[in-house]
Amino acid sequence: MNNNQQLQTRRNTINQLFAAPVRLLAPMEGLTDPLMRQILTQIASDLGRPYDWSVSEFIRITQHVLPAHVFYKYVPELHHDAKTASGTPIHVQILGSEAQLMAENATYACELGAPAIDINFGCPAKTVNSHRGGSVLLDEPETMYQIISAVRQAVPAHIPVSAKIRLGYTDTSRMDDIRGAINDSGADWLTIHARTKTQGYKPPAYWDKIQSFNALAIPVIANGEIWNFEHAQNCMTQAGTQHLMLGRGAVTRPDLVAQVDNDTENSADNGDNTATLLWQDLIAHQIKFLEGEAKNDVVLVGRYKQWLGMLTKGYVEAQTVWEGIKREKNKAVIISALQASVRD
What we know:
The chain has 344 residues and is α/β, with parallel strands linked by helices. Helices cover 44% and strands 11% of the residues.
């Protein structure tokens, strides 16, 4: 295809992706890794509301073009048409501050099979920000523009390029400049976590501040503090967009993606609670997580306990299991405790 044909292909792809409200699984460092993505996307598919796509944890770009094995480490789905086992596409997210280097790495990711490139301007981690990565660049809209533009110009014309931001770094005073940088850069869509870096993950999320970004001629996806159906509805109303990215709420309630489009309280009155994933239905998925691939069982058990701790906010049964195994290191004992929680 020539460049014009590739450009038209990209436009068609974007129109198809956003033909209906999209529901995405958020990239969360150290949480939505390949194993967690596999589990959560499978649950969503089983419930009949698969994620439209997910985004990988950020791949940090610093000094050179990364070797293939690094991309495969973070996105092993690249070996399988960039999809999870349940068929959910995975977009590759990169993070860095050097425009040309970001562009070169994005190009290589596309050569390895990335269906889209997402650029991280939202990570609030101090170690990342101190090296001019993530949300600290929200104070440098010109740098944001240079990075997105360089990536957009470097990758094949048919590959979409998106960005993820917060409302600002210490405050929202640069929102107009940030919006201008996004507008001029050629980004194909934008995801907004509705808090500043300084606000971290502390409630509330300021969904209404997303409204001003709807003036952009690209789709806008809202993210932040969506834990249930009501939150999702309020977010879409206040943000003025029907597109949502689900983060910690989707880990705490793996059925959230189905619930946000299905008022489960009203559905229950009609005898339909298909969007609700009961604890006993989640046991098999937790065991599958514990039996997943990892460097060693210590790592896997630690990762599972992180998840179980989050599940305690969504399931009362999880609290009982947590109290029984929080100091346990033996994977087999933990699996037995999970199975016993159903019998009990």
